[in-house]
Write a structure and sequence with these properties.
The chain is mainly alpha-helical. It has one domain. Helices cover about 90% and strands about 0% of the residues. It is built from 6 helices and no strands. Helix 1 packs across helix 4, helix 1 packs across helix 5 and helix 1 runs parallel beside helix 6. The model has no long low-confidence stretch (mean pLDDT about 85).
Length: about 170
């Protein structure tokens, strides 16, 4: 019979899981709402010779070098997001929201691109592969739950409206 862990350990573990879950939910919601808005620009940028060449170089690097390339912008951008959430929660809602959106877009343009082109190399690192499998599973569960909420449905409707507005603006420029 396995030995039961102390209550303090179980409480700390439950709190840590809760915090990680909230962080993943917030990150996923932001990513799901903002990524479709910047996808056309990402597609265009990745088609440029310079970015295609950089992507090809990153894809050929050793796994731990790709990890460092991913870790540096991640270590800078993610704390900015936490600060933005804190700032918004302490009464600076507009500034916190703007910083959070800017940091998320910057994250998509750097971390997401590095991860995308270096994913093959990164998945050669056993612990990284296990961590990403767990995070993707957690994200998928959180996203499935979030999509059932009214706030998600309202936000998704707003994003669809913004996308349609952008499409109209682009169509009128042609």
């Amino acid at each position: 019979m396995p030995q039961e862990r102390p209550l303090v350990f179980r409480v700390v573990r439950a709190v840590a899981r809760f915090i990680v879950t909230i962080a993943v939910v917030v990150y996923t919601i932001l990513d799901e709402l903002l990524f479709p808005l910047v996808r056309p620009l990402l597609r265009w940028l990745s088609g440029l010779r310079l970015f295609a060449a950089i992507g090809a170089i990153i894809a050929r690097l050793p796994p731990y070098v790709v990890l460092v390339l991913l870790a540096v912008p991640f270590a800078i951008i993610e704390p900015v997001k936490v600060f933005a959430l804190y700032w918004g929660a302490t009464g600076h809602v507009l500034q916190g929201t703007l910083i959070l959106i800017a940091a998320q877009i910057l994250s998509i343009f750097t971390c997401d691109r590095i991860y995308h082109v270096g994913r093959g190399q990164l998945m050669k690192i056993g612990w990284f592969r296990r961590l990403m499998t767990w995070l993707v599973s957690l994200r998928d569960k959180a996203l499935a739950w979030a999509r059932t909420t009214r706030i998600w449905q309202s936000a998704a409707g707003a994003v669809r409206s913004i996308r349609e507005w952008f499409r109209g603006v682009i169509a009128s420029l042609r």
